[in-house]
Amino acid sequence: RKLNSRRHGTVGRIALLCLLPILLQCTTLLLLQHLPTTSAIEATFTPNPQDSIENGGDGGPLPVSMQQRRQLLELEAAIVNSQDPSGTIQHVAQQNGMSPEELAGMLERNRRDLQESGQLEGMIGEVNAAMQAQGGGGGGRRSMAHATLPRRILSLVVSIIMTLFKTASLQISRHPRQSSLLAMLLAGTLLAVHNAPKNGIVISSSLPFSRGHTTLLEPPMDYLERYSVNSWERGGWISSLPEPVEVITTQSTKKPSSKSNKKKHKVVVGGVGMTQSLELDTLNAEEEEVAVQTSRSKEDGFVLVTTAQTLVIMDNDIVKDGDENDDDDEALLEARECMRQSITSIFQERKFSEFIPGKNSHSLKFRSFLVASEEDVDVDDDEDAFTEGGVIAMKLLGDFGRYGVQPLCISYETEDEAEDDYDDEPLVHCVAFHTLTGGHFDGELRFLVEETTNDLGVAISVTLAIPSGGRAPPVRLAESMVSSLTQSIAQSSQIRMKQTLSRRRQSRSYRAQASGRATLRRHLRFEQEKLQEEMAADRKRKWKRNNPDAGHYRPSGHRLRSPGGHPSH
């Protein structure tokens, strides 16, 4: 019984839940029948007669939605941006059955209403963005895939530039002094960036307080050459040396068999070629060391004479490297010839600052060049057809401790070399340059190389001589100049000598290998031909031994008969 009662209770609950929605609907219908009935109200818009144009009004606000106002703005922008705005507005007004004046008034009223409500600027921005997107997309016919990445980047850059311009104009209007100072700094920075790779930023050239041409940064060599050539074209090169003066100097000589004595002689100081009278003792030169000697005595007519010299000796390891089977004398002669060639090429090419050592690698540059002579000279005389010039750019030489540019011109060049590279005559080569106006000091720079006789080597020296009455650089700067140039020439000569020796040895080794291969091929060909001849003789011998009729010929007469069976003769 209890089980049956539980079942009947569950069935009743389910039936009540099913009837509950029906009861709710019936209750709702009964409530709606008792509510009061309502009717729809139709609203109409009646314009104010005072706003009409006939009564002198402006037409009043337009009864349009925001979407229609936006379309009117797009129509106005399209008319303004067209090639013929008057023709376009007439065409649009004719299509809509209205006059051009009415259409223009409608557009003006729409703009005024949006301006009064404060929505004009935002809606104009949306309309311009939509027109740009439509123009970039080909009038809406092309998909966004045609808006390529370069166009997007270009639009982004343009927008950034416009934003920067607006911000800059706003800041300039608010802070004029700070903005002017910032603009001057920006202009100076851009000018420095533009001129730095061209001329090193020239800071003083012909100013009254300047000693000479000065650049803030390291000047390029092409600019230095152009500067000197332009000076030549403007009126030629003018020497900055004082007038030559004869000075009586005392030179002490010491012979092995006598005491030292003094000898007086006249020396011309000043003018071009004054360093020819300077004598240098190469016995003080040491290997792998640069010895610097400075004299500031005014007795000889010179304010400053600074000389740096070093000795380059051919190392036995370098001479015998790769040629252990060669004779020592031949190897030394070959190394001597290579050393002469390297020194000669360095002096002919004027590679004096190719390897500036240490911290001064970017503080000193030297370059020489040729300019056409303006005088009427013989075409066959190449020496007189051109004039050689040079230029030095050195740090701390210019104003304010920056790079100073010193123009130079060749004074003389002497070369004493035997016709044969294997001759015992020592090599002597000397080149001198004198200073020109527009520089920082007045003097003559001499490059000298002498081949020593006691050992296989060369003595390299660089001398800077400043005569009395000339401007002299600081002593430390002059010593640094001559020592850097001397060490650079020594290193260049050693490197070129090693390169020349290596090329010769490689060429000799290649020729030996090629000659050996050719000899081997000839020997193999001879052995092969010999074997073939022996095989042919052996084959002939065997054929004669196996054939009893070998070597005998007995004609049968059949070859003499004609095809018809009758002999022809």
Total number of β-strand segments?
12
Shape: flat
Average residue pLDDT: 76
How helical, in percent, are the residues?
A: 40-55%
- Helix/strand order: HHHHHHHEEHEEEEHHEHEEEEEH
N- to C-terminal separation?
158 Å
Low-confidence stretches: 37-41, 137-146, 252-260
Beta content comes to: 15-25%
Number of helices: 12
How many whole angstroms does the radius of gyration measure? 52 Å
Largest sheet: 10 strands, antiparallel
> Which structural class matches the secondary elements?
alpha+beta
Describe the overall structure.
This protein has 569 residues and is α+β, with helices and mostly antiparallel strands. Helices cover 46% and strands 17% of the residues. The strands form two sheets. Strands 1, 2, 5, 6, 7, 8, 9, 10, 11 and 12 form a ten-stranded antiparallel β-sheet that branches. α2 packs across α4 and α3 (85-95) crosses α4. Residues 37-41, 137-146 and 252-260 have low confidence and may be disordered.
